[in-house]
Design a protein that fits this description.
heterotrimer; A alpha+beta; B mainly alpha; C alpha/beta; A: Ubiquitin-like (UB roll); Fumarate Reductase Iron-sulfur Protein, Chain B, domain 2; two-stranded antiparallel ribbon; 9 helices; 34% helix; B: mainly alpha
């Protein structure tokens, strides 16, 4: 296979030793098909052990290695190096946006998780009926089943959070990930959590803040139609919100 | 560990009414343009012709309706834009009240301008 | 470098399926924390694709499931444990469904089940080809609901013990670099596998066998370590897993001559024979020149149709396109075997208890043993949920009747001294080349097919690497997010485990399950129907003990499919 050398231009910052962030350049030999993560691993193991980034599964299912590559938030393990080179044959790698960077490519994920917790992300049983003791049947039309199945594909990679312009402007906005998670339960016929979740969803910082820019849908590495899910939540919250007469 | 966030609950009404008013706006603007410019194509617009038209309730409703819907849609949109600005969301109540006052005053002012055509004289402001 | 001490009644190391299930079972009146070196959802449990076995169907029977499991294990599984697991399986699946797992369904609304390798009945319940993720997210959601404390990005370095009782763990807080002692009356290990021992592996970077090595260093025996599972179908290159569910749905394996070669290896079950058999078949085809250049064969899904591929195998559809640029609807997918699972691990009984008082283990890091010499597909998710729960139950019981022992602060000092010393080394070799050499050695010499000569070479090579490792050092001398330091320590764990795996493989002079010796091609129940247990002796060398295999109802027979 045709090997070639490219340059990794990596955002570096160590809060203890560096006054401000800087770019570090690393030459890396690559083969066609090599993902960005492989390049970063080679840098860490062979050139500079102090480069900090998170990574685990290498196959786009654990969501650890989201970062900004060539200007867009992507998974380093699902992005091929040769697809994201600029005119100088450089791969530009930066930490995610909308979350503060801590060291190199590592960001502080706390706000992201806090928002996820706020949507009560678990299946709420029917408070009026006893839990089933045997198999519970569930029949769903294929399209509804696919909607929930797609929504539960979320791997918590934070790419949508990083790409959402509303999150960038308004730190209080729940963000696409928390909303699509809420949708996953709201769409589930077994769930009875709407009254609990409505407090955060039917909220100025909840579904109503979404401006349908579709950045989340476009950037999601699992191809989840996030905006579609949020729109469905808006329709649902409309009945909740109007029923309660939520103030203008 | 988990805290409820600080945004105000609600938001369904402004969101819905913005869309409803948009639909009205579309219909009313088209009607308005048709009436003003195409219904009597070529005829000059005079005080008398406008007056003659406005005594029909249908036309009056269209113009007053347009006034209210335009003001609501515009200010509700403005509210959304203002709340988008960081640091402002926690002032949402003051912003909302302010905009309501502004809207009501604007509508009254607009009605006052239309009044001479219907009753022969303005109500109060433009005496 | 700060030193801190925290206290809990029960701590669980590892936030994957087994760990989370254990934590959910710990009596809520006890204080409990889950410790994980990554954020919870990053655990490798989420990568499991195919399914979870349970005899749900009225036509099916848990005893048949147990038999299949035992036969699949090449009769090395402890039969009482396998029976316990299989009998509990339907309850486990129903419980997960009640908690919210979004299983695929049959038209009548029941949970869908598919065929899986070595199973006499289609009993793998699945959520498309992302069953692990569906199950894990459910447990994670339950942990959020119950407000379970998770210490995220805490890297456990050692067990603290007082005589024969556990006192807690010493860990590194990755965010700050602080060495933190966590005192606990009971410690549950659920730290997963050690796939990083091999170059070709479906495992993530984080699966470095930490728990196994830490337990081993603390004197707890490792069992059945010579049995390493190679998954037959991984994508050449990154070795991303292609689920067995693909073959369960009916996909074919072809060699270069367009022959469904499995007919020569498992006439009846063909592609859905157990993993050890299919992996060996593929390796044999490749070794005998019937593979493709680059060492692979083809997995053909095309006849399954676009609908099945895109709905029930959606992840691997995505993988094939992303990593190989191949659309499985139109083209067959190249596959080769890759390391997938460690059958061996921390020796436990069927209630997750170990020989160290107050110390429990569950999931892949433990060897109960229910998988024996070869694990059947869709049994590992079940294993984590069954024995994770038992670990939680037993740890709670233990704490309620035992005051625990005082945390030995020297354990904390030892680890921080070690780190200080490491950071003061200058001009030393980095761990990277050592780790790569270890992984290469394991892949070429302790892989699917083994023989005495290559195993001895491997052992020599590992000992040499160990010496190099003693002198190696790190690049990053900082405290925060020092992944260099973590990688270095992990490499030490891997070297220990590599030695145990290779030694076990050398001593077991027979072929059984995943352990195939070309110099001893047959199973030898006379001599080797036993578990090997390895622990370090006082001089730090391996010492071997043996344990009989528990036989209840199923007499060892020749294994044919």
């Amino acid at each position: 296979m045709a090997e070639s050398t490219v340059t990794f231009r990596v955002f570096r910052y160590n809060p203890v030793t560096d006054e401000k962030p800087y770019w570090a350049l690393y030459p890396v030999t690559v083969e066609p098909g090599d993902p960005v993560l492989m390049g970063l691993m080679r840098i860490r193991e062979e050139q500079d052990g102090s480069l900090a980034f998170r990574a685990s599964c290498r196959s786009g299912i654990c969501g650890s290695d989201a970062m900004v590559i060539a200007g867009r938030s992507r998974l380093a393990c699902k992005t091929q190096i040769l697809h994201v080179l600029n005119a100088q044959r450089e791969v530009v790698v930066e930490p995610l946006r909308n979350l503060s960077y801590v060291k190199d490519l590592v960001v502080d994920q706390t706000p992201f998780w806090e928002k996820f917790y706020q949507v009560d992300p678990w299946l709420h049983e029917d408070p009026l009926s006893k839990p089933p003791t045997t198999e519970r049947l569930m029949q769903l039309p294929e399209s509804e089943f696919d909607d929930i199945s797609k929504a539960s594909d979320c791997i918590f990679c934070q790419i949508c959070y990083s790409e959402c312009p509303v999150n960038g402007m308004d730190r209080a906005f729940l963000g696409p990930q928390a909303l699509i998670k809420a949708f996953r339960f709201e769409a589930d016929p077994r769930d009875h959590g709407t009254p609990d979740r409505a407090r955060t969803l039917n909220n100025q910082e909840g579904v109503w803040k979404c401006r349908t820019t579709f950045n989340c849908t476009l950037s999601c590495p699992k191809g989840i139609p996030i905006t579609k899910g949020i729109q469905a939540l808006k329709r649902e919250m409309l009945t909740v919100g109007l029923g309660r007469g939520g103030g203008v | 560990m988990r805290q409820r966030q600080y945004g105000t609950t609600g938001g369904a009404w402004p969101w819905l009414l913005q869309r409803v008013s948009a639909v009205f706006l579309l219909v009313l603007i088209l009607l308005h343009l048709w009436i003003e410019h195409f219904m009597h194509l070529g005829a000059p617009i005079t005080f008398a012709s406008v007056k003659a038209r406005l005594v029909h309730a249908v036309f009056a409703v269209i113009d007053y309706g347009l006034l209210i819907v335009v003001v609501f849609h515009g200010l509700n949109g403005l509210r959304t834009v203002l709340l988008e600005i960081p640091f402002l969301p926690h002032r949402s109540r003051a912003i909302t009240i302010g905009l309501w006052v502004l809207g009501v005053v604007t509508v009254i002012f607009g009605m006052d301008i239309l009044a001479p055509f219907l009753w022969g004289r303005p109500w109060f402001v433009l005496k | 470098m700060a030193e801190i001490l925290q206290r809990y009644d029960v701590i669980v190391i590892g936030a994957g399926l087994a760990g989370m299930r254990a934590a959910l079972e710990v009596d809520p009146r006890l204080s409990c924390a889950v410790i994980s070196k990554v954020y919870p959802v990053r655990s490798h449990s989420v990568a499991a694709q195919g399914g979870i076995n349970a005899a749900l169907d009225p036509e099916d029977n848990w005893k048949d499931h147990a038999f299949d499991t035992i036969k699949g294990s090449d009769y090395l599984a402890d039969q009482d444990a396998a029976e316990l697991m299989c009998e509990d399986a339907p309850r486990v699946v129903y419980e997960m469904e009640h908690w919210g797992t979004f299983f695929s369904r049959r038209p009548d609304g029941r949970i869908a089940q598919r065929s899986f390798g070595g199973q006499g009945y289609p009993r793998a319940c699945y959520a498309a080809d992302k069953t692990g993720r569906a199950l894990y997210q459910t447990l994670f959601e339950q942990s959020v609901r119950r407000n379970i404390t998770v210490l995220k990005e805490f890297f456990v370095m050692s067990l603290a013990t007082v005589e024969d009782q556990v006192a807690g763990v010493v860990c590194l807080e990755i965010r700050t670099g602080a060495v933190v002692g966590i005192a606990a009356k009971a410690v549950i290990f659920a730290t997963g596998g050690a796939g990083m021992l091999y170059l070709r592996t479906t495992n993530p970077y984080i699966n470095t066998g930490d728990g196994m090595a830490i337990a081993y260093r603390a004197g707890v025996a490792l069992k059945d370590m010579e049995f390493v599972q190679f998954h037959p179908t991984t994508l050449p290159g990154m070795n991303v897993l292609i689920t067995e569910g693909a073959r369960g749905e009916g996909a074919y394996l072809y060699n270069r001559d367009h022959e469904r070669f499995m007919v020569n290896y498992a006439e009846k079950l063909m592609e859905v024979a157990p993993r050890d058999i299919v992996s060996r078949a593929i390796e044999t085809e490749i070794n005998q020149g019937r593979g493709f250049d680059g060492g692979y064969v083809l997995l053909d899904l095309r006849h399954l149709g676009e609908n099945v591929i895109k709905h029930r195998l959606s992840e691997i559809y995505d993988f094939a396109i992303t990593y190989k640029g191949i659309n499985p609807v139109q083209e067959p997918v190249p596959v080769q075997p890759g390391q997938h699972y460690m059958m061996g691990g921390i020796a436990t009984n069927k209630y997750a208890e170990t020989t160290l008082v107050g110390f429990y283990a569950a999931g892949e890091c433990a060897a109960v043993s229910v998988h024996g010499a070869n694990r059947l597909g869709a049994n590992s998710l079940l294993d984590t949920l069954v024995f994770g729960r038992w670990a939680g139950i037993q740890a709670s019981k233990f704490v309620q009747s035992n005051p625990g022992v005082e945390f030995p602060t020297e354990a904390l000092r030892t680890q921080s001294a070690l780190i200080r010393e490491l950071k003061s080394r200058h001009g030393a070799e980095p761990y990277g080349p050592i780790r790569r050499a270890l992984r290469e050695t394991m892949t070429t010499k302790v892989g699917t097919f083994r023989d005495a000569e290559r195993l001895r070479q491997a052992l020599d090579a590992i000992e040499e690497l160990e010496e190099r490792y003693q002198r190696a050092g790190i690049h990053d001398r900082g405290d925060i997010f020092n992944y260099d330091l973590i990688g270095f320590i992990e490499t030490g764990f891997l070297i220990d485990l590599g030695k145990v795996v290779t030694t076990g493989a050398l001593m077991r002079q027979e072929s059984r399950g995943a352990h195939a010796r070309t110099d001893y091609p047959h199973r030898d129940d006379q001599k080797f129907l036993i578990h090997y247990l390895f622990s370090p002796n006082s001089r730090g060398q391996l010492s071997k003990t043996e344990e009989p295999v528990v036989i209840t109802h199923y007499e060892p027979k020749e294994r044919k499919y």
